[in-house]
Amino acid sequence: MEIGQRKPFSEAVNAFHGRPLPEAAIPVGYAALIDAFELGVPIPLHLAAIGPRHKVYEADGWKLYTPRHRPAPSVSGHLTFALRYEGLDLAVLKALFFATGPEPIAALIRAAPTGSYARRIWFLYEWLLDTRLDLPDATLGSYALVLDPDQQWAIKATTSSRHRVKNNLPGTPAYCPLIFRTPALERFVARNLSDQARHLVADLPADLLARTAAFLLLKDSRSSFQIEGEDPPQERIQRWGHAIGEAGRRPIDRAELERLQGIVIGDARFVHLGLRDQGGFVGEHDRQNGTPIPDHISARHQDLPALIDGLTAFDRGAARDLDPVLAAAVLAFGFVYIHPFEDGNGRLHRYLMHHVLAERGFNPPGLVFPVSAVILDRIDDYRRVLETYSRRLLPLIRWRPTDRGNVAVLNETADFYRYFDATPQAEFLFECVARAIDVDLPSETAFLRRYDSFKAQVKGMVDMPDRVLDLLYRFLRQNGGKLSKRARENEFAALTDDEAVRIEAIYADV
Question: Are 414 and 464 within one domain?
Fold first, then answer.
């Protein structure tokens, strides 16, 4: 048994940590390391194993490799397999490095000082743990990329001459979620949705574009409250809409997030503003005794300043080199998992999507895509995406209930919020942005064109102020294009029967 290893590596099994395999197979790579060192980390969404067949195939969250792919039953063997075939999982790697201690990792590097995988492991050890192994700087070996850009989305690399590697990780040790390249994400990026949106609005008259933008902004603000189960006064919706309209103008940091929280909360008499000074969770309370029933447990309040600093560094650094939608997903979903405030987290999480898209110039100038409205339409999918991480995270957090019906977290959890696989979240956000561009934007401009035509034709027949025309249109829309008997006898009693028939015909035509 190697130094630091707690138990032997597994042989063939039918299930791994409650997850069934497609057939009896030998867990390898991250699965083998998690099991051998009993690492308390979220189980990766996709795992690897060595199957009995001589073909590679995927099923049920597993990728089964052939017997010839089987790595040596050692830390070095499984680590190299993981980096070669599974990409980087920083949460697993950091937990593993703590579990092994420095000497096994240093021995691994001494055994293959020019090997690219050994030097990548060396860099990751020192980068993640902010420590220095007792090794001289590398002098041989071609420079290797830390993150394989064919597997996961990377940024422009910086050189680490000590390890002879190029660091292309999209973040810092304080905050670095990763996104795998998937066929869906490749297709979305290739579509160049930003240019598509610009072409859609290029020929719109300025007044029509301005009205479209105003309506979509208000729609997004209202939807963001509705997602939280709130129906606030119009003034509060408009105030938050104004804040969304200014997204991207200021860099994100703690002071800016706290300013935005003050706007979204409004009446703060019963809400603590600023970073939480106690635990936090999303879920319900037991009706009998008030004990928390968490669906998600937020980051410890002691860790919030450092985590927000990590978000800030990402926003000002790596986010500028990633595709804007990918960067928006990493920033926004990381924020909502951290859940730094007592209230307002959900709306600020969706604001951060707008922030990145606007700051990067992804939107046409002055236009906000109604992402929250699309999310509201897909609320069940949204919750499932949030839970792809929360459910894997929850069993790893030790907590006790407080006498205030809150949770007190008992173990170290900060790394769970720094490093996670943001692939499902990125795919979901791209789907929402694409829907907003493909459906909502052209639908709203088409509606306004029809509405303008209706108003012009009715005004050509009957002189009405705009507010009365608006009311007339709403009545027709609510009653299938017909004026109800009540409307004819009250608000529009002055219309003749012939005028009413002609107005209904105009509505049907447009």
Answer: no
